Amino acid sequence: MELRDYPLLGEKAYWDTLENGLTVAVIPRTGFTRKIAYFVTDFGAIHRHFKLDGKEYALPAGTAHFLEHKLFDMPDIDVSARFAALGAIPNAFTSYDMTAYYFSCTENFNENLSLLLKFVSTPYFTEESVAKERDIIGHEIDMVADTPDSKLFENLMAQMYRQHEVRQPILGTRESLEEITPQVLQLCHRAFYQPSNMLLCVVGDVAPEEVREIACAVLPNEAPVPVEKLPSEETSLSCENAYGESAMEVAMPMFQLGFKCPPVGQGPDAVLREIIGDLAAEALFGESSALYLQLYQQGIIDGSFGGGFETIDGMALFTVSGDSDTPLQVQQALLEQASRIAQQGIPPEDFARLKRSALGRRIKALDSFDSVAFRTCAYHLSRYDYFRFPELYRQVTAGQVQEFIQKAVDPAHMSMWVIHPLQKEAM
Amino acid sequence: MVVTIPLFPQITLRCITDTRFKQNCLSVQFIRPMRRQETAYNALLPAVLLRGTEKYPDLQKITLHLDNLYGASAGALVRRVGDYQTTGLYCSFLQDRYTLEQDAILAPMLDFIRQLLLNPVTELGVFRTDYLESEKKNLISTVESQRNDKRAYANAQLLRHMCSDDAFGLSRLGEAQDIAAITAQSLWQHYKKVLLESPVNLFYVGAAQPGQVADLLRPVFADLQRQPVALPPQTGFSDPPAGYKLEQMEVAQGKLCVGYTSEITLRDSRFAAMQVANVMFGGGMSSKLFLNAREKLNLCYDIGSGYYGSKGIVTVCAGIAFEKETQVCQEIDRQLEALCQGDFTEEELLSAKKELASQLQSVSDSPAAVENYYSTAACSGLGRTPQQYLQQVEQVTAQQVAQAAQTLQKHTVYFLRGAV
To answer: What is the pairing mode between strands A55-58 and A2-6?
Structure first.
């Protein structure tokens, strides 16, 4: 395996690509007890159109997430009980552009790893179990319906995006769940759960070669089947509706404001662009920004105010959200501050401080196993090596951040959603 | 290994030196008895202290200073530990050796903590009114926003009903009306009382040696006038009125919560057995509630149980369809009964013990988990290490689990649901 060394961060990583196309990354944590493994596929909720064997397919909304639930079923063993007997806690999540399966343990690491690889690579779906899962996911959809942060984001995406699949909720809808059948799940598994479309990332005090050997032994060694994702892209950056609102059981009004940005693509330039976007967020509305301090001191925002630059396959969004009685006032203040920065730029001293702070926080985050594993996977899917982030921070200039704000904060690309508390009838 | 260094009477520093981490964590906790007349004060105090010091008199100067210390963070820390409430700060900051130019962070950060605690910016000898009012508004909004998270809200409501006569039923962050009534004068008096009377627990985890940390922290408290007052002992559960409570909101999903009481608290020799019983009952993906209510009967997506050892309370919480209340209640009863009857396999028992073991062994791998575990253990007066705890868990037998489960008495059912 290839050993990569990052002395400034005190990190090492072992990388390899197996014959079947699987990428393996092992990040050693000598002297630690905990071990975690993430097994992820480059397939998430937005990947609903693809070509396989020369044929085009369209998936019902919510398929990637449904598949994530159903992969825990195996014909001969109870996966959760088996992990529990081995002392591991397994879990999984589906995001817009990735699905991850993972476990955390302190003992029996090799057995747990085999089990993780085995269950994710074994499709087993019956009509009965799929029907049962519709009920369970239906309950999950109801839960999300009562979760204001999730509804805020979903509503904003549905309002902002006309073509990109981010406009559909990750879980799908009760109606779209009806269209998901064992055949649909089987097809997706064949297309997107081939080792060549996946990454295994382990963090902990383990032997890298053993991880590699287990992956070779458990996973199929078939030639990859060519699959082509049909891109989900938004042709226009303008937003037809700049404002939408709804009401829920919340204590005070909550808003999310978004600016549609062009997708960043992949590779070092894409990751550099993400970092520029994050620094732009810090400069414009981060906790030490003039805007944050002004609005906080005026009582217009509170500690819930925050945001960043979100990138999903085929789209990018500069966004900020929080609780406020006067969301439109926040929006107005943000536009004004952005045009000030666009004109005047960021003083070099301020910029150096922002970079230092952002870099310090990123290095602190390396203490979290889950953060390291997740980011290693996400960056790899963007074709970049996570531990090289300090180089990118060094490259970024104040001018780039200024230019980002100039372009991104454009009222024509802007949209906001507000959730109000329900109007109680007078007693 | 925890090194305990008494800095002054009732001011105790506990340190774990660990060079594996990239950050240091330091918590400062003033320990107060949990009581209605001061929960809001204890919750508000650190938020106001974080607004300005003599040297860094506003938010901007504070955040700029923290940015310069490589994104160091200082936040309010308000915990509930049984019958106690703690008020103070939680800080995390980069180890000096990971800075770009080998800058020092540890010493300036500890000095900054001193300023935050002891040199607040004042106006007419008390806290600035504008800072106070702004933080009151924020805290009230945080308290009121607890209803946004329906599961946490339902569980808190259940505990509030169960513990209406007990400190455990008090809101950790205070009640909105109590916060609204606080004045700059009254908060200042409370602040002086906290500094004068409260036992102080300091906890440090990071690469520095305990002696060095103690040397840096001693001057922080050296000039402080102190008359420490002993805390009342922690108590078990006081006998509260039982009952059924229905609350209506406009929600898509109901939240059913069932609360049980037990004589087994964390001071009881059967504590480990009760913990194992709770994990088997509703602690995760291999628990009886998850496997039966969710996987077998499809009654819910989300179901689980929690054990509050300081009071001997177990709660179950499930997100369900409104009309399934009776069916889910019956299923919860059935699964508890199975546990009481010893109707479980050796594998279920072993799995639960392993899950707890894994959690305890993992404590040492994260600075935040280390701080939380040891600070809470010290504050509750037990001070068990994860290893000592682990030994007790490993010895739990099937019979002990059943016996622990048998002590659970159903106390209150709370149901949050939409209109019919």
So the answer is: unpaired
> Of all helices (H) and strands (E), which one includes residue A142?
helix A127-145
Q: Which among B250, B347, B366 has the least Cβ separation from residue A367?
A: B366
H or E stretch covering A213: helix A208-218
The rounded Cα A28 to chain-centroid distance in angstroms is 24
Q: How far apart are CA A39 and CA A219, in angstroms?
A: 12
Global pTM value: 0.94
For residue A364, the tally of other CB atoms under 10 A from its CB is: 25
Does A422 lie at the interface with B, CB-CB under 8 angstroms? yes
Across residues B315-324, what is the average pLDDT? 96
Contact A33 B357 (CB under 8 A): no
For residue A427, the model assigns a pLDDT of 38
Contact A143 B301 (CB under 8 A): yes
Chain B: closest CA distance from residue A412 (Å): 31
**CA-wise closest residue to A420 among A161, A160, A166, A151:** A151
A9: alpha, beta or left? (left if phi > 0; alpha if psi -120 to 50):
alpha
What ipTM is given for this predicted complex? 0.91
Residue A303 in contact with partner chain B when CB distance is under 8 A: yes
Look up residue B292 and give its two tokens.
């039966």
Q: Give the tens place of pLDDT for each residue, A353-376.
A: 999 999 999 999 999 999 999 999
Dmax over Cα atoms in chain A, in whole Å? 71
Using alpha carbons only, give the angle B201, B2, B231 rounded to the nearest 5 degrees.
Answer: 30
**Contact at CB, B148 and A250, closer than 8 angstroms:** yes
Question: Residue B104: exposed, middle, or buried by beta-carbon count in 10 A (0-12, 13-18, 19+)?
Answer: exposed
pLDDT of residue A241: 95
**DSSP per-residue codes, B198-235:** --EEEEEEESS-HHHHHHHHHHHHHT------PPPPP-
Partners of A311 in the beta sheet? A316
Q: Do B358 and A252 make contact, defined as CB atoms within 8 angstroms?
A: no
CB distance B358–A83 less than 8 Å?
no
Of residues B10, B85, B83, the one with CA closest to residue B46: B85
pLDDT band at B418 (very low <50, low <70, confident <90, very high): very high
* A33 contacts B365? CB cut-off 8 A: yes
What is the reported pLDDT for A424? 61
Residue that the structure tokens 């269209």 belong to: A179
Cβ(B47)–Cβ(B138) under 8 Å? yes
User: How far is the C-alpha of A178 from the C-alpha of A183, rounded, in Å?
Assistant: 13
Q: In the prediction, which pLDDT does B208 show?
A: 95
Residues of chain A positioned with their CB less than 8 A from the CB of B60: 288, 290, 293
How many other C-beta atoms are found inside a 10 Å radius of the C-beta of residue B229? 12
Euclidean distance between CA atoms A100 and A43, whole angstroms: 9
The answer to whether B319 contacts A366, with C-beta atoms less than 8 Å apart, is: no
The minimal CB distance from A32 to the residues B20, B144, B253 is found for: B20
The pair of three-digit structure tokens given for residue A320, joined into one six-digit string:
């900020």
CA distance A389 to A363: 10
Q: Name which of B296, B353, B358, B373 to mutate to probe chain A: the one with the most chain A Cβ atoms within 10 A of its Cβ.
A: B358
The catalytic residue positions of A are: 68
Residue numbers of chain A with a pLDDT score lower than 70: 424-427
Q: How far is CA A235 from CA A25, A169, B325, in A?
A: 36, 20, 48
Chain A contact set for B350 (CB, 8 A): 85
Distance CA B100, CA B89 (A): 27
- The Cβ of residue B353 has, within 10 Å, a number of other Cβ atoms equal to 22
Alpha carbon of A220: minimum distance to chain B alpha carbons (Å):
28
Q: How far apart are alpha carbons B99 and B71 in whole angstroms?
A: 11
Chain B residues inside the 8 Å CB shell of A368: 366
Instruction: Point out the residue among B94, B150, B301 whose CB comes nearest to the CB of A363.
Output: B94
Q: How far is CA B227 from CA A395, B10, B199, in A?
A: 55, 9, 10
